[in-house]
Amino acid sequence: MHGMPKGAVLGLALASFALSGGGLTAASRAADVTLTVSRWAGPQADAQKVLLDEYSKETGIAVKLDAIDYGQLKQKQMLNMSTRTGEYDLIYVPEAWFREYAAAGYLTPLDDYVKDVKLTGEGWDLADFSKAGLDVYTAKGSLQAIPYFAQTPLLVFNKDALAGQGIAPPRTWPELLSAAEKLKQAGTGIALPFRQGAAISNIMAILLAGNDGRFFDGNGKLALQEPAVVETVAFMQKLAGSSLNGSNGWHWDEVAKALQFGQAPMGITASGLFKALEDEDESNTAGKLGYSVIPYGKHPAGLLQTWAWAVPADSRNKDQAFRLAAWLASRKALAEISAADPSFISFRASLSSDPDIARRAPWLAAANEALASGVTLPLQPAAPQLLDALATGLSGVVTNGDDPAAMLRHVQDTLAAKF
C-alpha cells in the first residue's frame, strides 16, 4: 500500500471489518435511517468519511458527514442543539466544550447505552477505556460522551545529536535546562512553541501540573500567585533563554518541521504531528528521534487534548446514533485507524500496549505515560479569557524578560472576579 492515499489505505484496512459486520447485529440494519454526524473538517475528517461509507454499506444506514471549519463548529453545534432542530445525531466534541454542552442539557446520558450489548456489539468492553478519558466526559455522575481521540505535547529529541554533545535525554527541569544550555552553546538550542497563543498556555498547564501547581485553589478561586505557579513561569523564562533562534515565536507545527528536517536537535510539539516525523519519504530524521514526557519539576504530567462522540438530546435516532459511536470506538475500528495514522491515539488500554501499534508509533509509550497523569485546561465559562491573558503575559515573559510574578499578579487582579 506504499504511496496510496491515506483514505484509500484506511478504506482497504477496514473493509474486512465492515463486511464481517463489525460486531453489529441484524437489528442495527435500517435502510430508512439517515444519521447526520457533525465534526471539524480536514484530513482526519476525510479519512473518517471512508469509515462512515463502509458502515453504510454494511448496515444500510445512510450517514451524512457535516464537516466544517473548526472555527465555526461550536457555533453551529450550539445553534442546532439549543433550538432542538434534531439535525445532528452524533457530534464530535472536545473536552473544552463538553461541560458547557452537558450543563445545558444538550447531550444524552449514555450509562444505559454502554451496558446494552445489543447497542454496543459483542466484546465492546467499556473497562478497556482509560479512566482518565471516561472521567473527562462524565458530568453530573453520568457518562455523556464516548472518548475517542487524544493527543498531548511531548519532548522530541534527535538521539544522535544529543549523544554527540554527551547529553542524556532529560527527564527533570534541571536536566532539561542543562541540555538546552549545552545545545545553545553548540549553536542550536531547544525549539519551543512559545508564540503568543494556545501552545504556550498549554505548555504552562503541563509544567504546572508536574510541579504540583494549580490555576485554582481548593475553593475554585484563581490562585496565580502561589509559589508553584510563579516557579513554573520562571522556569519557562529560563528555558526560553536557551531556545533555538526564532522558536520563541513558533507554534506546534513549526517546531515539528524543525525536528523533521533536522534543524532542531530537541523540541516540544504535539503528538498529532508525529506521523510526518517518522515518514521516511518526508523526514530527514525518521528513525533517529526519541520521545518522552515533558520534563517535570516533581512528577510526569501531560495535557488531555481530547475529542469524543456524543449523542445530542434532540436526536431522533438515539439508538442508531449510539451504535455508530460504539462501532467507531470499537477496538477493531480504532486499531485500523491507528494502522492508517499512527499519530491517532485512542483511549483503549488494549491498544496502548499493542506491539504492532507501538512499532509504528515509537512515541506511544511516552504519550501513555503523559496521558496517565493528564490534566485538562481550565473548563470554567471564563477559562478562555484566562488562557488568552496568560498567553499574552507568558509571551512577554519569554520574549521581553517581563517579571513572572508581576505578570501573574496582573492577570490575577484583572480576572479574579470572574472565578
Describe this structure in words.
With 419 residues, the protein is of the alpha/beta class. It has two domains: 190 residues, Periplasmic binding protein-like II (D-Maltodextrin-Binding Protein, domain 2, 3-Layer(aba) Sandwich), CATH 3.40.190; 192 residues, Periplasmic binding protein-like II (D-Maltodextrin-Binding Protein, domain 2). Strands 2-1-3-12-6 form a five-stranded mixed β-sheet. Strands 8-9-7-10 form a four-stranded mixed β-sheet. Strands 4-5 form a two-stranded antiparallel ribbon. The longest helix has 18 residues. It is globular and about 65 Å long. The N terminus is likely disordered. It comes from Labrys wisconsinensis. It holds the Pfam family SBP_bac_1. Belongs to the bacterial solute-binding protein 1 family.
Shape: globular
Which stretches are poorly predicted, pLDDT < 50 over at least 5 residues? 1-29
Helix content: 40-55%
Specify the CATH homologous superfamily of the largest domain: Periplasmic binding protein-like II
Give me the CATH fold name of the largest domain. Answer: D-Maltodextrin-Binding Protein, domain 2
Report strand order across the widest sheet: 2-1-3-12-6
Q: Biggest sheet, in brief?
A: 5 strands, mixed
Count of all domains:
2
Summed over residues and divided by their number, the pLDDT gives a mean of 90
N- to C-terminal separation?
Answer: 53 Å
> From the helix content, strand content and strand pairing, which structural class follows?
alpha/beta
**CATH classification class of the largest domain:** Alpha Beta
**Helix count, per DSSP?**
19
In percent terms, what proportion of residues is strand? 5-15%
The whole-angstrom Rg is 22 Å
Q: Could you say what the CATH architecture of the largest domain is?
A: 3-Layer(aba) Sandwich
